[in-house]
């Protein structure tokens, strides 16, 4: 199994390209199921999750083709991939595929809207919490779907073969449930109103792509979406927006090492709250024509409390990375996780570097230490894994991060990007 070896101490300097967003790419790929025309996505990141979702889509009958890749291409640019669901050959998403990646459950929305029927395995829990799907099912029921659960599968049926518009009010903000109900509503008969919709930029990106495909959606980027159903959607070409979590991760890594890096292609507006917090810790954040520059000179890292929230708040997907930064602050910072109930698995691993963290329920109290010491570590989810890389970059001596398949799920060529900015980092294969 591959591992990452790194030796801490180098300041990150230079330029680091930001890839397309994983969490926008996945729902955009799934949207290809809504039309028999071709959907072409550009700026697609090279990630294991993208490959896995391709397998799932192929199983439903989607033709996937990688466009314009030259032999031996090594550039950092994104991929251009087209998805063509001329015919849906299977409306079942089996356990073996859905259990590998939770977002694959989202195919339920387009399959039901286009084919009038879908049978999708329940995704089950995952390392960060139980993650139920009740909002999805209630939302689809509000659009007229008849839903039953049988042998671990959700069986969904649109009476008469077509969903109808309805009113959906989510009790809590859910990114995935918003994606699914919005996609389903594009082909429903009549108008759908989604209240308390997620405002995450990836939801807006999907909505814009759906509009390019012919959907009628208003209220994009707000918490009320109105969708006027249409009879059919067409093809489109869409560029995936930059990854705000990757941006935040490398911004934190730069702050951690006291470096100076231009995050090329990054957009500040996609993570204003997190970058504002970073500025309060003593990091300079500047917008430049090519992206966002992050710099911290030798000054102390100030402790700043954060609480994770739905967008535009501080993202849960940056909580672990931020905690790694706070292990080196000049005081004590309180970090409160409000989105997922079990998202502190990195704490025990950060402790292996000598970090001083106390957890009580959803709160972690992090007291900075004068030095972290490299260690052998592993993590059970993507963002937790990268928090260990961040700690390792600032630690004395060697760090080995095990189980890096988590990193490969969501970080496009992480070690090459960090090495390009001066980090001593390599992948150990086998
Ligand atoms: C998306 O997950 C992201 N995944 C997650 O990123 C991210 O952490 C999360 O949104 C929050 O921002 C993708 O986009 C692929 P939710 P999602 O539904 O949609 C509860 C990463 O590392 N809930 O917004 O699954 C749920 O348990 C990943 O890239 C219900 O109770 O998250 C949670 O407490 C990890 N019932 C809260 O809502 C439901 O039916 C928000 O979850 C649905 C959700």
3D architecture notes:
- It is a single chain.
- The protein has 14 helices and 24 strands.
- With 430 residues, it is of the alpha/beta class.
- The strands form six sheets. It has a four-stranded mixed beta sheet. Strands 2-15-17-16 form a four-stranded mixed beta sheet. A four-stranded mixed beta sheet has the order 4-5-3-14, covered by helices on one side.
- Strand 18, helix 10 and strand 19 form a beta-alpha-beta unit.
- Helix 5 (134-142) runs parallel beside helix 6 (175-186), helix 6 packs parallel to helix 7 (201-212) and helix 10 runs parallel beside helix 12.
- It is globular and about 65 Å long.
- Bound molecules: ligand EPZ.
- Residues 23, 26, 103, 129, 131-136, 172, 174-177, 316-317, 339-340, 382-383, 410 line the site of ligand EPZ.
């Amino acid at each position: 199994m591959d591992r990452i070896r790194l030796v801490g101490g180098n300041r990150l300097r230079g330029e680091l390209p930001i890839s397309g967003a994983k969490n926008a790419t996945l729902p955009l790929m799934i949207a290809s199921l809504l039309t028999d025309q071709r959907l072409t996505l550009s700026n697609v990141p090279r990630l294991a999750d993208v490959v896995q979702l391709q397998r799932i889509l192929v199983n439903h009958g989607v033709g996937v083709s990688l466009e314009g890749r030259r032999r031996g291409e090594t550039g950092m640019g994104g991929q251009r991939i087209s998805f063509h669901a001329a015919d849906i050959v299977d409306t079942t998403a089996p356990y073996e595929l859905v259990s590998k990646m939770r977002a694959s459950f989202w195919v339920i929305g387009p399959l039901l809207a286009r084919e009038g029927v879908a049978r999708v395995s329940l995704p089950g829990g995952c390392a960060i919490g139980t993650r139920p799907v009740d909002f999805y099912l209630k939302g689809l029921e509000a659009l007229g779907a008849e839903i039953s659960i049988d042998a671990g599968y959700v069986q969904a049926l649109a009476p008469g073969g077509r969903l109808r518009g309805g009113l959906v009010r989510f009790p809590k903000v859910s990114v995935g449930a918003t994606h699914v109900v919005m996609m389903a509503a594009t082909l429903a008969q009549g108008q759908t109103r989604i209240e308390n919709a997620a405002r995450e930029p990836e939801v807006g990106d999907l909505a814009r792509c759906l509009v390019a495909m012919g959907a009628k959606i208003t209220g994009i980027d707000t918490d009320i979406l109105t969708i006027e159903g249409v009879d059919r959607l067409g093809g489109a070409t869409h560029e995936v927006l930059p990854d705000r979590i990757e941006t935040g991760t490398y911004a934190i890594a730069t702050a951690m090492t006291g470096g100076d890096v231009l995050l090329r292609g990054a957009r500040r507006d996609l993570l204003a709250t997190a970058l504002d917090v970073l500025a309060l810790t003593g990091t300079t954040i500047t917008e430049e024509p090519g992206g966002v520059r992050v710099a911290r000179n030798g000054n102390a890292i100030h402790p700043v409390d954060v609480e994770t929230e739905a967008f535009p708040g501080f993202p849960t997907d940056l909580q672990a990375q931020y905690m790694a930064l706070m292990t080196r602050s000049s005081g004590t910072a309180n970090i409160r996780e409000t989105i997922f109930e079990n998202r502190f698995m990195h704490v025990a691993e950060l402790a292996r570097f000598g970090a001083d963290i106390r957890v009580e329920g959803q709160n972690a109290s992090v007291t900075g230490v004068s030095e972290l010491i490299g260690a052998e570590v592993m993590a059970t989810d993507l963002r937790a894994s990268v928090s260990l890389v961040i700690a390792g970059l600032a630690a004395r001596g060697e760090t080995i991060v095990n189980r890096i398949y988590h990193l490969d799920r969501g970080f496009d060529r992480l070690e090459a990007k960090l090495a390009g900015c001066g980090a001593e980092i390599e992948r150990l294969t086998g």
